[in-house]
Amino acid sequence: MVIVIVVSVIWLLAYNSLDDPIIMLRVVFFSSLLFMYSYLAIIKASRFGTVGYKIFSIKVVDLSGQSPNWHTMLFRFFLIFIGPFTFVTDILWLTGESSKQTLRDKYAGTYVVRSNATPEGKGVLRNVSLHFMGWNISLKEIQTSGPQGICYDTRS
Asked: What is the pLDDT of residue 125?
């Protein structure tokens, strides 16, 4: 909702102040893109979080449980627009995923967790290959349990 409201305000301001429709579309497009990146990447990764993240008490972390850096969030942001990493695909993928991680989060190496969550321990990073909608995607994933459900500890 925040994005829709801000982009609508940008559009109305550009529509009322610019006469040339091409310039108006460029201003709206680039201003909206800049706002969406700031909101969906920079603010999401910060300690402040977005309005939705505050309401649901969640945050984004990387594979080590820390706040992701800006280039990880930039990569995660651009995955919204390419390939099988669309919003609809993410929602469908999330329903069948055991780790409850979206496809773009898997590829970017991030997790969405509760704000008060703390890492339980360390897991083994493993390379995984996913085959989805004609795409062959290779990524890193945390292996949390072995064949008998035993958690691997790499602290030693």
From this structure: 78
Q: Which two tokens stand for residue 155?
A: 């602290």
CA-to-CA distance for 12 and 6, rounded, in angstroms? 10
pTM, two decimals, is 0.71
3-state secondary structure the chain: CHHHHHHHHHHHHHHHHCCCHHHHHHHHHHHHHHHHHHHHHHHHHCCCCCHHHHHCCEEEEECCCCCCCHHHHHHHHHCCCCCCCCHHHHHHHHHHCCCCCCHHHHHHCEEEEECCCCCCCCCEEEEEEEEECCEEEEEEEEECCCCCCCCCCCCC
For the chain, the domains span 1-50
Query: Distance (Å, rounded) from C-alpha 115 to C-alpha 56?
Result: 9
Give per-residue pLDDT as tens, 37-88.
999 888 888 888 889 889 999 988 888 888 898 889 989 888 887 766 677 7
